[in-house]
Amino acid sequence: MKRQNFLVLCGAILATMTLSTGRSYADDSSRYIETESQVITEHETKINGKRVNYSAETGTQPVWNDEGDAVATLHYTYYKRNGTKDDTTRPLLISFNGGPGSASVWMHIAYTGPKILNIDDEGYPLQPYGIKSNPYSVLDVADILYVNPVNTGYSRVLRNAEGKLPSKDQQQKMFFGVNADIKYLAEWLNTFVTRKNRWRSPKYLIGESYGTTRVSGLALELQNSQWMYLNGVILVSPTDLGIERDGPVKMANRLPYFAAAAWHHKLLQSEYQNMPLEEFLPQVESFALNELMPALAQGGFISEDKKQAVIKKFAAYSGLSETAIAQNNLAVSTSYYWKELLRSESKTVGRLDSRYLGLDSQDSGSSPDYNAELTSWLHSFTPALNYYLREELNYKTDIKYNMFGPVHPWDRSNNSTGKNLSEAMAANPYLHVMIQSGYYDGATNYFDAKYSMWQLDPSGKMKQRLSFKGYRSGHMMYLRRDDLKTANDDIRVFIDASLPASNEPAKYSR
């Protein structure tokens, strides 16, 4: 059941219940987004069989420059459980997707939020498009904020008093780069937390894909520039976080993902195919670290006997032929793998989730024509999100919702976000980190994620606060029904474990 009780703010009763007359376009004949707006609706759902009443607030909040001028406005959706007596103990989970340039839509209506899109149990689109209740949402244990960075979703750069937009160079310096992105979002979050009186609440960041770069940098930026300390950071399908892994490390780290994809498609010999995936992968990981990586490091100077032994094992684990591996000098690229694995069946496999199959115009070639999984996802996400915001959350605007927005060129220089996260953990004994990865993700593969976790704490002094969870799906593991439940349960356990006991001090003991 849902009750649509709209709050009238500042005496302004508008169709979209907006708060401010500021617009992102000076010309009234143009489409525009309000600089500040707010729509609140009331809802009821069941999570893990228990009734949860909550409010959904969706709107816009400005980004200000150092002179106090609004230079952009960010669209957000904020879910708050009703009836909470004490917000000081109620966690706030702040969610970002990635790209860069992607809206915070994927985890919003497919993972942690109270609604999920209409898909089958493996994540494939269904018609009619739409949404349904999420019985596994973490809204029972945490309030959730979904934020769309500049030019994603309904968020936009604003025109100045003269009706002019900043130049492309100015926009990049303000918004579109690793460090610019982190800086303005930290300021924006300070304002949001202050307005909602959530300073005393335990706070968590969750980011997916490039969103993991974003939240890793934010952990330290919030701590050092906003004096806001976190209890946890969740990295879903993490990027490299600025951690170097070129050469043999990068090439060898792909093999466990290759093995998982081949296992899923039942292409392995029975010795491996009959093993549970979670028992099979550790031996592939060991081979990648202890045999494949040294072989790659030796290049053409490896002995022929050793090279042939490595090729034979590589083929047995990956589902590729020994000839294909030899022709690539053991350095099989992911794009080649997506094309080659099922070439004999005239199929390709997906980049972000290799369970998905594609059809190319020609079987020859070294990479697929398109990403089979992404076209499938956009099938279902785009109509569901546009319907949901407008019809169920009552947020009405003519602005286009940018699933992927214009943010490029993106300045990727000086990416030290992995180091930033490590420094934030060292300075904050309360801060825990959990990594969630799908075994069939070929873009941000799970073994690279493990490698990043190891590099976050080379001393081993903080490893009790770092954890890894793997799932039998891809980049968006939550699209698979079984993993939707498991992954949300893992977040619940993580939040519970990272909440200190009452009056437990944040300190290291000797």
Describe what you observe in this structure.
With 510 residues, the protein is an alpha/beta fold. It folds into two domains: 85-243 and 379-498, Rossmann fold (3-Layer(aba) Sandwich); 248-373, no CATH class. The chain has 14 helices and 15 strands. Helix 3 (210-225) packs across helix 12 (417-427) and helix 5 (255-264) packs antiparallel against helix 7 (277-298). It is globular. Residues 1-29 have low confidence and may be disordered.
Q: Return the average pLDDT rounded to an integer.
A: 93
Sum up the overall morphology in one term. Answer: globular
Give helix and strand order, one letter per element, not per position. EEEEEEEEEHHEHEHHHHHHHEEHHEHEH
Category from helices, strands and their pairing? alpha/beta
CATH architect. name of the largest domain:
3-Layer(aba) Sandwich
Radius of gyration: 24 Å
CATH superfamily of the largest domain, by name, is: Alpha/Beta hydrolase fold, catalytic domain
What keywords describe this structure?
510 residues; alpha/beta; Rossmann fold; 2 domains; 11-stranded mixed β-sheet; two-stranded antiparallel ribbon; 14 helices; 15 strands; 34% helix; 17% strand
Task: Write a compact overview of the structure shown.
The protein has 510 residues and is an alpha/beta fold.
Describe the secondary-structure layout.
Elements lengths: L1 E2 L33 E11 L2 E15 L5 E12 L10 E5 L18 E3 L13 E3 L9 E5 L8 E2 L10 H7 L3 H18 L7 E6 L1 H16 L6 E5 L11 H5 L2 H10 L5 H4 L3 H22 L5 H15 L3 H6 L6 H7 L7 E2 L7 E2 L13 H21 L24 H11 L4 E7 L7 H11 L9 E6 L9 H18 L12
